[in-house]
User: Fold this.
Amino acid sequence: MSFTVAIDGPAAAGKGTLARALAHYFGFAYLDTGLLYRAVGAGVLAGGDPVAVAQTLDPSDLENEALRTQAVAEAASQVAVIAEVRAALVVFQREFARRDGGAVLDGRDIGTVICPQADVKLFVTASPETRAERRFLELDAKGVVTDRAAILAEVRARDARDQGRAEAPLVAAEDATEIDTTDLTAEEAVMQAITIVAERRRTS
Ligand code: DC
Assistant:
């Protein structure tokens, strides 16, 4: 039986942490849909045509640490405004969402466009300053030299592009439950998400 959890929200709000925890707790498969756009962005940085890269993407292209850089994130946000790129990625995401045993997908348009019938929709947010600080600490721990102001500017620029685009903009679905992680620990946010999903599973 399928059971779909859709998680949307801006960059570094904690979507991945919640998605991985839910997948682990309930035994669901997990798809980080940002990786699809990152793989297309990386292909474009390597000289490819965005639509052609999206149409020929292979799931094995997603298992690549090089997709985690800020340059690739920026390129991903840029290719994500192209309607044909988004269209090329829809079928893979919908099939993943329907798989037996349940699936959790995180991204920007999962509850609104990819899986409007999802069993649970979460919209995960945090203030731009909190998200930038988390990203800074993450990069700092990896030994990447950067500064807080530059990261905050990148976070704001990516928010503006993801929210302002015509095609599948980042917006909470009307029936999504919002989790604001600004003042929550990761454990507290995970507990909220598990409680919401467990309740829905009981009643579905
Ligand atoms: O979640 P992320 O930071 O890995 O996503 C990278 C970019 O990809 C993000 O800035 C916008 C785009 N994206 C999208 O448009 N739709 C999705 N479902 C996931 C990501």
The pocket of 2'-deoxycytidine-5'-monophosphate is lined by residues 11, 33-34, 37-38, 73, 76-77, 80, 107-110, 158, 162 (CB under 6 Å).
